[in-house]
């Protein structure tokens, strides 16, 4: 079966990966699969996954009205590496299935974009044609997140960053890097990425 060319966009929190994806979507009509929000959706709506989460984390993982109890789950996994692994081991295969189904509905697109913070950790990068890392120095990322997410404080953002794979390690997997440190405008960098993707597609098809 013919797939569209698959581009992954990853980067730590505040790197600007969502903004890059928004530009590719709005500017070039690229379909974007947002793995992090789909994961949240599936945890709330996919029966099989809900049952597995309850089995592993207890029925407190959902409130009596059936809403995901984010506070409880966050508390369970925040200081427990094993619990995070367990939760990811339940969620990632469901996201992989969901992505495959989504991909089927975009067979006509020249390329699709998969956005995920945990792209490499989930193994999703392995099936992509091109992995793009969006990156920026930690201090800039913290400042951006504090402006974007008023409900988070600096210590919380630092704790999230400390748990994510380092940018240095991610660079080893990336085929292409966008340095989004604010010293250069982002728009031309995304246009250049779009052009590179099209060049790769042409090369692949000849
Ligand atoms: P991520 O998805 O990687 O967590 P976002 O794309 O949401 O990051 O970017 C974090 C915040 O920083 C957003 O409010 C975004 O608009 C802003 N931002 C990202 N890159 C830039 C940039 N180059 N210039 C100005 N603001 C930026």
Provide structural commentary.
The chain is of the alpha/beta class. The protein has 2 domains: 1-31 and 111-206, P-loop containing nucleotide triphosphate hydrolases (Rossmann fold), CATH 3.40.50; 35-105. It has helices at 17-28, 35-45, 47-57, 70-78, 81-104, 138-148, 154-163, 167-173, 186-204, and strands at residues 5-10, 32-34, 111-115, 130-135, 176-179. Helix 3 (47-57) packs antiparallel against helix 5 (81-104). The radius of gyration is 18 Å and the shape is globular. It starts with a strand and ends with a helix. The relative contact order is 0.21. The mean pLDDT is 95. It binds adenosine-5'-diphosphate.
Counted by DSSP, the helix tally is: 9
Roughly how many Å apart are the termini?
Answer: 18 Å
Rounded mean pLDDT is 95
Structurally, how many domains make up the residues?
2
Small molecules (ligands, ions, cofactors) in the structure? adenosine-5'-diphosphate
Determine Rg (CA atoms, Å).
18 Å
CATH class of the largest domain, named Alpha Beta
Strand order of the largest sheet: 2-3-1-4-5
Beta-strand fraction estimate: 5-15%
Catalytic activity: 3'-dephospho-CoA + ATP = ADP + CoA + H(+)
GO molecular function: ATP binding; dephospho-CoA kinase activity
Family: Belongs to the CoaE family.
Binding site for ATP: 14-19
């Amino acid at each position: 079966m013919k797939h569209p060319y698959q581009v992954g966009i990853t980067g730590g929190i505040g790197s600007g990966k969502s903004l890059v994806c928004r530009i590719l979507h709005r500017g070039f009509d690229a379909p974007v699969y947002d793995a992090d929000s789909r994961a949240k959706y599936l945890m709330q709506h996919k029966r099989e996954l809900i049952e597995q989460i309850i089995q592993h984390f207890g029925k407190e993982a959902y409130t009596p009205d059936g809403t995901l109890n984010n506070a409880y789950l966050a508390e369970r996994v925040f200081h427990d590496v094993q619990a995070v692994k367990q939760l990811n081991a339940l969620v990632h295969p469901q996201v992989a299935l969901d992505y495959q189904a989504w991909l089927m509905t975009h067979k006509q697109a020249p390329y699709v974009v998969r956005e995920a913070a945990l792209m490499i950790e989930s193994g999703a990068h392995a099936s992509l044609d091109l992995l793009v890392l969006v990156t920026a120095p930690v201090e800039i990322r913290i400042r951006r997140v504090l402006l974007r997410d008023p409900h988070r404080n600096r210590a919380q953002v630092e704790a999230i960053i400390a748990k994510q794979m380092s940018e240095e390690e991610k660079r080893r997997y990336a085929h292409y890097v966008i340095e989004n440190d604010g010293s250069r405008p982002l728009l031309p960098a995304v246009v250049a990425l779009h052009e590179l993707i099209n060049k790769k597609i042409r090369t692949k098809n000849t």
